[in-house]
């Protein structure tokens, strides 16, 4: 009898508890409304078949290691390797549909975050503009170019965390946020200083990984 009761309690605890920490290369088949989800969109150089391409100036982009270090037991990480010549607006539309599917399956908006670096950050901004949701979370890494600042059709919605490298030509998101002031729920930005220019985000350096994960796991408004 005691053994039977223990089995029932064990089964209840592990079948009803929230389970996180998985890394998905594509959108998961099963969605748990009590789990948290983070999407990571890589830079342009990774588009194609090579997950560790080498840039002549900034060195190797280590997509597999970034996924490993960005992952966390408190959320599922969805990090898809995009094909070559991916259209950013079409991909952002696909990404926004995946987020909408999570929302329709009962995942709270404050449990969903989109992270993107460079071209991936541009895609993340477009997806935010498509979703128009004030409670979603967005992390933009070195993607607020002057070109993005001038794109009136791309507005940031929800909670935004921006990280840029001081030695990089791509800087602050202030101008992008300035024209999205009515749609940005909260805004935090930091700069890092590694001297690695755009390549600072090619590997999971603690300078950006640590603050990004801390922001993703912050206590969010209900």
Care to describe what's here?
It is built from 7 helices and 9 strands, in the order H-E-E-E-E-H-E-H-E-H-E-H-E-H-E-H. It has 222 residues and is of the alpha/beta class. The protein has one domain: Alpha/Beta hydrolase fold, catalytic domain (Rossmann fold). The strands form 2 sheets. The protein has a 7-stranded parallel sheet, with helices on both faces. The chain has a two-stranded antiparallel ribbon with strand order 3-4. Helix 3 crosses helix 4. The longest helix is centred in the middle third of the chain and has 17 residues, at 88-104. The chain is globular and about 45 Å long. Mean pLDDT is 92; it is low at 4-19.
Structure summary:
The chain has 7 helices and 9 strands. By secondary structure, the chain is of the alpha/beta class.
Looking at this protein, list some descriptive labels.
two-stranded antiparallel sheet; Rossmann fold; alpha/beta; 7-stranded parallel sheet; single chain; 7 helices; 222 residues
Shape: globular
CATH architectural category: 3-Layer(aba) Sandwich
Q: What share of the residues lie within helices?
A: 25-40%
Contiguous uncertain segments of 5+ residues: 4-19
Rg from alpha-carbon coordinates: 18 Å
**Could you name the CATH class?**
Alpha Beta
Order of helices and strands: HEEEEHEHEHEHEHEH
CATH superfamily membership, which one? Alpha/Beta hydrolase fold, catalytic domain
Secondary structure elements and pairings:
Blueprint: H1 2-16, E1 23-24, E2 37-41, E3 54-55, E4 59-60, H2 63-70, E5 76-78, H3 88-104, E6 112-117, H4 119-131, E7 137-141, H5 146-150, E8 158-165, H6 174-178, E9 184-192, H7 206-216
Parallel strand pairs: 1-5, 2-5, 2-6, 6-7, 7-8, 8-9
Antiparallel strand pairs: 3-4
Helix pairs in contact: 3-4
GO molecular function: hydrolase activity
Organism: Pseudoalteromonas marina
Protein name: Alpha/beta hydrolase
């Amino acid at each position: 009898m005691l053994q039977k009761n223990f089995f029932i309690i064990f089964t209840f605890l592990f079948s009803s508890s929230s389970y996180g920490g998985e890394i998905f290369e594509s959108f998961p088949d099963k969605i748990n409304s009590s789990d948290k989800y983070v999407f990571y969109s890589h830079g342009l150089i990774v588009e194609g078949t090579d997950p560790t391409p080498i840039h002549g100036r900034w060195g190797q982009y280590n997509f597999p290691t970034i996924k490993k270090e960005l992952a966390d037991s408190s959320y599922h990480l969805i990090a898809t390797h995009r094909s070559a010549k991916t259209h950013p607006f079409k991909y952002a539309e696909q990404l926004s549909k995946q987020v909408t599917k999570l929302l329709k399956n009962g995942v709270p908006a404050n449990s969903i975050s989109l992270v993107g670096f460079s071209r991936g950050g541009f895609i993340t901004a477009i997806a935010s503009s498509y979703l128009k949701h004030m409670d979603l979370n967005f992390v933009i890494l070195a993607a607020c170019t002057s070109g993005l600042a001038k794109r009136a059709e791309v507005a940031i919605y929800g909670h935004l965390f921006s990280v840029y490298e001081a030695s990089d030509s791509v800087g602050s998101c202030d101008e992008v946020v300035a024209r999205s002031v009515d749609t940005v729920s909260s805004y935090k930005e930091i700069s890092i200083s590694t001297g690695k220019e755009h390549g600072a985000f090619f590997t999971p350096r603690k300078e950006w990984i640590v603050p990004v994960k801390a922001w993703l796991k912050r206590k969010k408004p209900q």
